[in-house]
Amino acid sequence: MPEATLKPHEKHGRPTTQSDLPDSVYAFPKQRKEPLTDAQHVRNAVARFDRVIDVSDADRALAFANIEKAANYYDVNLAETSWHDLGIHPRQNRREAAVKGAVTRERRVRS
To answer: What is the pLDDT of residues 60-93, one digit of tens each?
Structure first.
């Protein structure tokens, strides 16, 4: 199991924009996906783990280690014991669905 890279980040109690966050607060630090800045974000990262695309199995193992560390830090109960419990790969056609959703959102904004 890889060593977790998570370093909890707080900016003096103020919300930060995503670009202000260091890579070390993300479940997937290389891709800067799934920030783990509080208990709610940890729960979201667990729920969305299998939706992350374009990551290797090694990246998933590192992300799970980061999620575990964040869950302990923010006192979140984590029932899963392995990243395999969260889902190995995203569902098929995920990329196409994401593109279609982006086009739909853009149309709604312009209307």
So the answer is: 999 999 999 999 999 999 988 989 888 765 566 6
**Rounded-to-10 torsion of CA 35, 18, 6, 30:** 90
pTM, entire model:
0.70
**Distance between CA atoms of 43 and 41, rounded to whole angstroms?**
5
Give the length of the chain.
111
Distances (CA, A) of 63 to 5, 104, 107, 111: 9, 30, 34, 38
| CA–CA gap between residue 29 and residue 66 (Å, rounded) | 9
